[in-house]
TrEMBL record:
Domain ACT: 9-87
Molecular function GO terms recorded: amino acid binding
UniProt keyword annotations, A-Z: Repeat
Repeat is among the record's keywords: yes
Domain of life: Eukaryota
Source organism of the structure: Kingdonia uniflora
InterPro entries: ACR1-12 (IPR040217), ACR2/9/10_N (IPR056816)
Name of the protein in its database record: ACT domain-containing protein ACR
Record function comment: Binds amino acids.
Keyword Repeat attached: yes
Length: 125
């Protein structure tokens, strides 16, 4: 996805019509939460949202309306903030790479012997 298509903001055609904010980037834990916080900080109210993810890639759409008392929205700053929390594509590429050789997990065996149970979790002292 080209960088200019990671976050797309389509303004409403008429006054009062919702704007559509689309985010298309690699997924990460709490990405939806982070996006919502930024949208709320810019004093938008979400009227509808749609999220699609496969755990690796995320596509999120927000339909938002601005606070009636807010006259001037800095769309560039909003877009930059949303872009700043999206993981970059190259990070996702490296995280999803499989190791070139398979490494067997280390397995350890612990043997434990106790005659009087002293010092055990629920033992009597």
């Amino acid at each position: 996805v080209p960088n200019d298509q990671v976050v797309v903001i389509q303004k409403g055609k008429k006054d009062g019509e919702p704007c559509v904010i689309t985010v298309n980037c690699p997924d990460k834990t709490e990405l939806g939460y982070d996006l919502c916080i930024i949208i709320l900080v810019f004093r938008f109210c979400t009227t509808k949202r749609d999220v699609s993810t496969d755990g690796k890639w995320c596509y999120v759409m927000f339909w938002v309306v601005s606070d009636p008392g807010l006259s001037n929205v800095s769309w560039k700053i909003l877009k930059d903030r949303l872009l700043s929390i999206c993981p970059s594509r190259c990070v996702s590429f490296y995280l999803n790479q499989q190791p070139t050789r398979s490494i067997a997990p280390s397995v350890y065996l612990l043997k434990f012997c106790c005659l009087d149970r002293k010092g055990l979790l629920h033992g009597k002292h």
